Amino acid sequence: MAERFMGIELNARNIMLAIAFMVGTYISIRLIAFFAAFLTNGIFGLVVSAAIGLVLFYAFMRGRR
Hints:
Elements: E1 4-5, E2 8-9, H1 12-39, H2 42-64
Antiparallel strand pairs: 1-2
Keywords: Membrane, Transmembrane, Transmembrane helix
Transmembrane segments: 12-37, 43-61
């Protein structure tokens, strides 16, 4: 029987799966941060912010009816 850590069996398959999840999480966080910085930077960020604000205001006003 393999050793267990936090109720998870430590075998090669589970260790590789854990590493894959860590790498996937790292890449997704970096991508989200890149797009967040891109969408909120410069004149393009101003346009995106205005568009999102307009959509949120529209949704708010529809909810008040």
